[in-house]
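Reading a protein record of the kind used here takes little practice once its layout is understood. An example of such a record is reproduced below.
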Amino acid sequence: MSKTINIRCVNTGRTHKVPMGFNLEEVYDLLELKMPHGATSAKVNNKVEGLHFVLFNDKDVEYLDITSPSGHRTYTRSVFFVLYKAAHDLFPHAMLRIENPVSNGYYCHLDLPGGVTPEQVEQLKARMQEIINDDLPFHRLTAHTEDAVKLFRSAGLENKAKLLESCGRLYTHYYTLGDVANYFYGSLLVRTSQIYLFDLIPYGDGILIRVPDSNNPGQLRPMRDQPKMFDVFRQQHSWQKILGVTTIGELNAACAAGYANDIINVSEALQEKMISRLADKIAENPNLKVILIAGPSSSGKTTTSKRLSVQLMACGKRPVPISMDDYFVDREKTPLDENGDYDFESVYAMNIPLFTEQMNALIEGKSVELPRYNFQTGKSEMSGNVVHPTPQTIFILEGIHALNPALTENIPDANKFKIYASALTTILLDNHNYIPTTDNRLLRRIVRDHKYRGCSARDTIARWPSVRAGEEKWIFPFQEEADVMINTAMLFEFGVLREQALPLLEEVPETAPEYSEAIRLRKFLSYLNPISIQALPPTSLLREFLGGSTFRY
């Protein structure tokens, strides 16, 4: 008689006896769950595993589908592997790089002479569909890291070999699909036929791969043209290529060779140079009186505004910061969300008429007493702070709604300059594993919230989905409205964040729902060699999150 184990299934709300040695896919079929979009992965004791995972002991299991962030990542990684195999089959000597998310898809560069033609994109798409129709299995294998390194190096995947070499792990898991092998830092689907929807289209000088919308899995994510963001990504990738540090493996190797300080100094210099040039551009236009800086959470908006102020002073300007938080309406006038709660993220939580009236008066050179919002009483008050503009005065405002046309449509375009700041992560784990920009910002916020707000990593992770939902609604739709985009991500910063964030993530208990995200971030950070915070200048943007800045916050 075969032995059984107990599985507490979150999806059914019951405990089930299942044969020991079944994998998650077999248990899914046994329980006849029949999730509408199928299971892509599962949480096992609050840790995400692929459906290959074999069960030998009693476990808590929650099956995930494409509507969950983890399930969507599993689906997307699997599509990437199918694209890699298709490119390998059709163009075996061309290098594929999956570089960054843009326009609600993922930009990929295929190193073909003269660039990728539309006909070649169609060939790739057709080959991908053939691989999907063939119902090929994604095999998960375990090997000694030395053997995995040799395997990838022999296949011409040098950046993948460098990443594994720098991790210090004895054994490595990797996947095969037909006759090709690849490495991903997360789970994949069980077979290619589970990929039910994708698209591949020409984009720039490369390819855009599209996947289903997690909110509407029957449809692809809607295209959102983002030419300015794409240009920022391309410029950064070009600079990193010149520097020879485009992947984490290359960064680790450079740091191990003693070049960490050089990378920090060059990165900081490039960012300061960018802000200096921006200040010159603003100062050259006497009509510009209002600088609006927007960006998502933990994008470094505040330090960007402070460093821009310093550079504007060097140009002979008199920058005056104005807090947009002081323009909230009285609390009882705040709009309600779909749950009947106050929606403080809404642009209509702002006193737009007062904001417009005061900004236009300041532009005209009139003295204005600024408001102050009393967050304890929920009332707007006069502050006693009267601003007397001069011809050199320029007003700097930063906030989530700074680029929303509804806020500034009645302020003359000639008088305002709009900046979008975000941590647009461009360094890759390797050529087939990009790093989500949201991970960059989440790690910054985990460290900052612990240092300055007394919040645990668990608290920050728990709040993150609502923060992201507000960004999707109120920030991201307007980012292309900016006159200039600033990338605040630093090439070296994950190495610096590693030592600060890892101990905080290790405090998240296994019993917490946030444990799976903490484990995922811990695994990602483990690929990095630590970089000392000591080498950062006191004006570094990262000091906003790490401490030790000479700016006041």
User: Anything to note?
Assistant: The chain has three domains: 4-65, 70-225, 228-546.
